[in-house]
Known about the structure:
- 22% of the residues lie in helices and 40% in strands.
- The chain has helices at 3-19, 23-49, 227-244, 259-263, 321-337; strands at residues 54-58, 69-76, 79-84, 91-100, 102-107, 133-140, 143-148, 154-159, 167-176, 179-186, 192-195, 201-203, 215-219, 246-248, 251-256, 275-283, 289-301, 304-315, 341-347, 353-359, 367-372.
Amino acid sequence: MNYTKIFALATGALLWMSSCTSSSDLDKLPGAAVRTQQAISETVSKLEGHDGYWRLTYYPDTKRAYGGYSMYVQFKDGRVTALSELSTTSTNSTYSVKNIDMPTLAFDTRSNVLHHFITSTEYFRNARGGDFELLLMGQRGDSILLQGRKYGNQMSLQVAFRYTPEGLLFYEPITIGGVTISGFRLSSDGTSVTSIEGDVTTTVVSLPIDLVNKSYVAYFKADSAADDLVSFFTRVNNTLYRNRKARMSARTYFGVNTEADQTAGLVGNDTKVAGFLTMPIYEQTNGSYTRLSYEVDFVPVGSDPTQVDIIARDGNESTWWYWYASAAEYWVSRLATRAPYTVETLTDAAGATYYKLTSVKYADKAWFYLYEVQ
């Protein structure tokens, strides 16, 4: 008996049977198609029926490493006007609502606002986890529920009555010690925040030094920083020289990019003004000089107003970070992972104020002096 032939015939019969559709199934197809088109038409009518702006709560990246952003969009005649907290300059491009596996809101043509996180660059070669096709998941009241088609993050469109939020809303509620918190509202005097549920209130803590509006410099050399930090900085510098024939200056700048920095071209990846760690770089082959910057957030520590934390975000494209990243990222990582730092205010012999930052976790191995840039 030819078992191979029998198997082939049986397989063919099964495939034929599976490809057949009963008459009752066929009767359902037009209804499904009609319902899909009806959902699409209703969504377009709802989007364009609102004369003002919608607030698009937008979450890039599979791990939501950049947090959430508010984008404001207005739909009219197949086009969408958009602006965001990252760019107050509006863009106008096309959009569509179509069936891609399921009804989907798609931002079809280039928009610097809506396509910000899907744009690849020399440093962000795989972009930053943005979606421009958003699955329509349903409605809740006046809100349209969305989900990124590629990365799966939940988003929403809400009728925007005002642009200034009361506080912040988490991506999803969190439960700590049996208490669920979905977000916080800022008090009218700006001194405290209360959970939306009303169960938790905490005082707003400010930074012990003004890293949001000013720039400071540290010198990673003997007597100005811990020996362990100076030694690590030297090793990173040696690696940088082997890889790129370049060396970092012993100076590292902390804080916001100044007006002079912005004029010279140092701006943030997402916004013009940003917090940075900046290292001067000298090319040994031709003697040229550049600044190398990494975007960071300087944040206060709620449990201790004398402390500052450093959260590393991205290498800065305006300073060609990617060219030196293989070595320099180790230096940024060392400074960030030693945070939080306790800030001590000191006075020199001439009466000038400066600061000592000491790691809470590695007090003897990670400390340095910080001086305000005048």
